[in-house]
Design a protein that fits this description.
This protein is of the alpha+beta class. Helices cover about 40% and strands about 20% of the residues.
Length: about 260
């Protein structure tokens, strides 16, 4: 049958069928060497519908050509693509819900407080990260710090603290995670069994602080409001920004992260 008849049969446009031939996902059964006219067979309709479904499922034409050209593990590959679509759909649904909440919610005024944080003895991990991976770096660091505190028999006397150099927000910079501990007399040579963990102190100094409530994905909103307030006052100090994890785990509505912006004394 002609390409026009096949287009009618499959509900695919002639333009799409030509493109599918050019990208090697659906070739005509015959191409007239003199006229260049394309002819298809009824048996190709199933492949045409499969290509359309895969395109609707956001699979690239290159991947479709590869998939249809090799029957080996085809079912597993289609299933894996379907699982990836489901994962992305869940992420999009979560993002859509957050967007609706941000549109409906009244912007609450931040309770900004001036605090002088006292430096305390701490177990410390120093790493390098950018904004895209800083949460993963901190999660790993505090997991290791908790294990080290247990190994040493240290009393944890406050929330975990992380400080970030300006370079973290630009490309990649130094991230220092600290777990404050009380005085103890355990054998600190046990730290030899915890590579990358040292003894140090939590950041001290004067800060303007605000508590971010909820998911860390929205932490930038609190940063913006607090940073704007500091800039308006003209009191920013050249020290790292600090986060204190007051409630680091639980449902997103329960999370509490105190953002501490360094200011002049």
């Amino acid at each position: 049958m002609s390409i026009g008849q096949f287009a009618k049969l499959t509900h695919l446009s002639v333009k799409a069928l030509r493109h599918y031939q050019d990208t090697h996902v659906l070739a005509p059964a015959v191409v007239d060497p003199d006229t260049g006219y394309r002819y298809y067979e009824h048996s190709q309709a199933h492949r045409a519908h499969l290509v359309r479904r895969l395109r609707d499922a956001d699979m690239s034409l290159a991947d479709i050509a590869d998939l249809l050209g090799d029957a080996h593990d085809r079912r597993d590959r289609v299933a894996a693509h379907a699982d990836e679509l489901a994962r992305r759909a869940a992420e999009l649904a979560e993002a859509a819900a957050a967007l609706r909440e941000s549109l409906d919610a009244q912007v609450a005024a931040l309770d900004i407080v001036r605090q002088e944080l006292v430096s305390m003895p701490a177990l410390v991990v120093v790493g390098t990260a950018g904004l895209d991976d800083v949460d993963a770096v901190c999660t790993d660091a505090f997991s290791r710090l908790d294990e080290a505190a247990t190994l040493l028999g240290c009393e944890v006397v406050g929330p975990g603290v992380a400080s970030f150099t300006d370079a973290v927000f630009e490309s990649a910079g130094t991230v220092t995670c600290a777990l404050p501990i009380g005085d103890e007399t355990s054998d600190r040579s046990l730290l030899d069994n915890s590579p990358g963990i040292g003894l140090g102190a939590t950041p001290g100094g004067v800060f303007l602080t605000a508590v971010h409530v909820g998911d860390r994905k929205e932490l930038g909103v609190t940063y913006s409001a607090l940073g704007e307030h500091v800039d308006e006052l003209g009191v920013a100090a050249q020290r790292p920004v600090v986060e204190r994890y007051l409630v680091p785990t639980g449902d997103s509505s329960e999370l509490r992260t105190e953002v501490c912006w360094p200011v002049l004394t």
